[in-house]
Design brief:
Helices cover 45% and strands 16% of the residues. By secondary structure, it is of the alpha/beta class. The relative contact order is 0.16.
Length: 167
């Protein structure tokens, strides 16, 4: 199977957080082929445009865009590929208020919507799961793998009865 998800990180500074979040591990465990790139929408707009168009030609339709500070990357990808599914994961920092970064992520034009599921490590994991859920809608193998993955991860608590007697 060829790559079916593109994960784009806006800068090398964010790479360690992406790797430590478990996002890439989730995609690997679910056997989802993906591309992983570091491309700044501000510093390398032509490279980003070329990458997006080439990815689209190869059949990639879901783009997970990870960016800190000013999360322009998801909007740039959506502008290049208006029909793509773009999942935005803004990363917060000590220098910027998390609310400002979230509001910036949510403030894309309504005709070019992106999905924002959360920030930082939690948002990265949610992005991986949601991308796979979207793929599972039209792929029985991915659906079965995802279903089994969640069944294996969902520990069923053993019933336990405790009684207390008053003295």
């Amino acid at each position: 199977m060829e790559n079916i998800i593109a994960v784009i990180v806006g800068g090398a500074d964010d790479e360690q957080l992406v790797e430590s979040s478990g996002m890439l591990s989730i995609l690997k465990q679910l056997q989802i082929p993906f591309e992983y790139s570091i491309i700044s929408s501000d510093q390398n707009p032509q490279d980003l445009r070329s990458y997006c168009l080439e990815s689209w030609e190869k059949g990639i339709r879901i783009f997970v865009c990870i960016a800190g500070l000013v999360p322009a990357l998801p909007g740039a990808v959506k502008g290049i590929l208006p029909m793509a599914i773009v999942i935005s994961v803004p990363l917060t920092s000590e220098d910027y208020d998390a609310k400002e970064i979230i509001l910036a992520s949510l403030s894309v034009p309504s005709k070019r919507p992106v999905i924002v599921l959360g920030v930082n490590k939690s948002g990265l994991k949610k992005a991986a799961y949601h991308a796979v859920e979207l793929l599972a809608l039209n792929n029985e193998v991915i659906y079965a793998n995802l279903q089994k993955f969640f069944e294996d991860k969902t520990a069923k608590p053993q019933p336990r009865l405790q009684t207390y007697t008053a003295k």
